[in-house]
Design a protein that fits this description.
The structure is a homodimer of 472-residue chains. The first copy, chain A, has 472 residues and is α/β, with parallel strands linked by helices. Among the domains of chain A are: 66 residues; 263 residues, Aspartate Aminotransferase, domain 2 (3-Layer(aba) Sandwich). Chain A is built from 14 helices and eleven strands. In chain A, strands 1-7-6-5-4-2-3 form a seven-stranded mixed sheet, sandwiched between helices. Chain A is globular and about 75 Å long. At the A-B interface, α1, α2, α3, α4 and α5 of A face α1, α2, α3, α4 and α5 of B.
Chain lengths: 472, 472
Amino acid sequence: MESRDELPVPPPALFPAREIRLRLDDLLTRELADMNERVARGPVMPDADMKLFRARLAEFDFAAPRPVEPLLEWAMAQLEHGVVHMNNPRYFGLFNPAANFPSQCADRIAGAFNPQLASSGSSPVPVAIEGHVIRAIAVRAGLPAESSGHFTTNGSEANYTSLVCALTRLEPRFGEHGVRAFSGPVAMYTSRECQPAWFKIVHQAGVGRAALRLIGTDSRGQMDSQALAEAIARDQAQGIVPVLISATAGTTGGGMVDPLAACASIARRHGIWYHVDAAWGGAALCSDRLRPLLSGIELADSVTIDAHKWFATTMGCGMFITRQPSVLSEAFRVAADFMPSSASNLDPYLTSVQWSRRFMGLRLFLSLAAAGWQGYGAHVERAVEVIARIRQRLSKHGWLTINDSQLAVLCMVPPDGFPPIREIVRQVLASGRAWVAATTFAGREVLRICATHGETTLADIDELVAALQAAR
Amino acid sequence: MESRDELPVPPPALFPAREIRLRLDDLLTRELADMNERVARGPVMPDADMKLFRARLAEFDFAAPRPVEPLLEWAMAQLEHGVVHMNNPRYFGLFNPAANFPSQCADRIAGAFNPQLASSGSSPVPVAIEGHVIRAIAVRAGLPAESSGHFTTNGSEANYTSLVCALTRLEPRFGEHGVRAFSGPVAMYTSRECQPAWFKIVHQAGVGRAALRLIGTDSRGQMDSQALAEAIARDQAQGIVPVLISATAGTTGGGMVDPLAACASIARRHGIWYHVDAAWGGAALCSDRLRPLLSGIELADSVTIDAHKWFATTMGCGMFITRQPSVLSEAFRVAADFMPSSASNLDPYLTSVQWSRRFMGLRLFLSLAAAGWQGYGAHVERAVEVIARIRQRLSKHGWLTINDSQLAVLCMVPPDGFPPIREIVRQVLASGRAWVAATTFAGREVLRICATHGETTLADIDELVAALQAAR
């Protein structure tokens, strides 16, 4: 029997009518703008009573529907009191930006269309846009025009992808038989100042944590290329197979750039895959003035750059770029007869660890199209200038600069009379006036300050300095 | 010398004034709502001239800034003509949903605050919200209350995580020495109807593609548990180490559920990690009526569920859930002294492959809070009803049902007089009237129809049937 009965009404909570959507979107537009202004003036640190919050959260048993509008209000209020605020211009933090506006627009557009970025058959225009941006960044870095790559969730994923590429290219039987196909244990090399996701990456790639060689750094926090060459020779003498060198262009701790060209030479001499982790520092390529600091990046087999760091897009917008796209096709090949375009070997699902994916690349495309290289150049140069002003002010108060970065990270130690660094940081965070970090740089406990907010003012700098001096 | 000169003005393209942001957000609100209505009435398939589009795209050399408003207009217009439309209610497609409204709101809120989800120190409220949703889903699946997990970019990442957990738990030296620590080659087991990302996963995890055992299915497309047990015994006899069984709850091709309890018994008997890939089917847990179809999922060591599939959130919102959270802490441990809360071993960056991450979980939290289990139950039951209606209509026209899914995927073959399935699909797609797929199910070429859009009507079903019949 064929039923002509009407289908059940779709749940209005999930699919409300147009008028309701317009009203709630308008509400978000205004309340988020107001929030942004309050957050910029308010404390950087969260002040939520987490015990109380957890009790409220526990009441969400999802037993019955709740009206959407109060839910949105509740969520915004909880976030306003429940996160470290990257939107506060006195967040001098961990490479997390206040998101630029074009990238927020891109997110809205991507969410509304909700395209599936796995394949060009499903998303021809989005896949083309992403490819265009990736190539533009590659060419800006000096890589050959036939370079390619893809957007990743983050820098960890891009760095992991470089290791998979290295293993795949160096041992033809790796794809079929895995790490056991190598003649001995493998090893990869990065500096002790590297982003520590590498500890997880060697574990999850099946080569093991023992494969990670943390090469020492010189007094400036840059990978010691002599020590790198020696470590490789030592491993080779013992039957260990070197597969990957990852140099860092913009270390987390000190904003330092490893000797990119020297590392490239060593990699080439030994036939090792050469990766440059420019997750944060890569944006310096936009500035004609700062770009030479990354000289040598054009020699890389692959590069990590996160748009959600210094390009200031919303979170979750990394990039993996490679001069050897055929290795991606070899590493991530698969046959799926239900996919719209499995014929092409350039589809994102055939060239990356991802399958279902959001249209992330629109964020960088719209931001870059709106600002141009010059706008982004001004953005990164301004951050470097913010750091220079902070250094000037603190130096006047007797603080000593420990790192020698020409990017936007500053490591300093206070003069006599101050408590230990971690106590200074504790006091500054407790005041809510600014966010700074304690870290270890070149074997020494330092105060770490990074310019991440695009609209930090002189008044914000004064406030930071006052907050630090108050810890004396 | 201390400089008191004003800092350069931040690039207005990236950080426009409040009035401009309000105006552009209002523009997006209205134009995206209009777009949504046009897309629902229009063709499902893209109609962009890609050669022309690529030529336009090539003009974006980013040499100079461009005004944001025309850029947004351009991007929306290109997307409207340049993607397969999940927002069209006649997309009977690959588990890609029309995004529900609360999840789109969640994306806006997350983008505006742009919290860093790596750590609870940085994002105490977001990390607590994500943990609450994960536990609620775990408990709904019948897993113990101490289960935990995290949001992932997609199901591939969650499935990959299950393999890393399996390897880490089974061989204590795996973390340090990788796959070579096992006494022999390892193997994992899933059915030949599995999501094919597993081919990439075994490659990138360093165990190699040869480790993947695709177990045959019975006539209903469900993993043959007898064949599974035999494959394991055969491998063990040869010194191969079985590490993981992944059963699928809602196969891509036929919407079938593997025998979850039988697979669990086999895994337990051999001490193998037991994973259930319920990327799509997991949403059936919301319905009291459909939930029993997933019986046995409560025996899993880990589960994949994608909110961006049947939960209809925006793209990029997967989940990995495990009854053994300590294995996650062992697999993804790292020490990073600059992180705000490396003391806690429950932070997302210490328990997942991710580091920097977007606040993805807010999408499912707000959707689930708004709809409740009952709203989501109605949503999935409605999809099953849509498929029942399509089956009725096509059966009347002599089409034969090939699969026996009680979820929302239908595999059918036409009566005599029709061209081959792929030709039918080609004609339907060319008409733009609906989107369906050709695939192989149980060794046979079939037409695959899946209800993915929450607001498909009887008229849409009639249109689909007419488009298919027109191919005769």
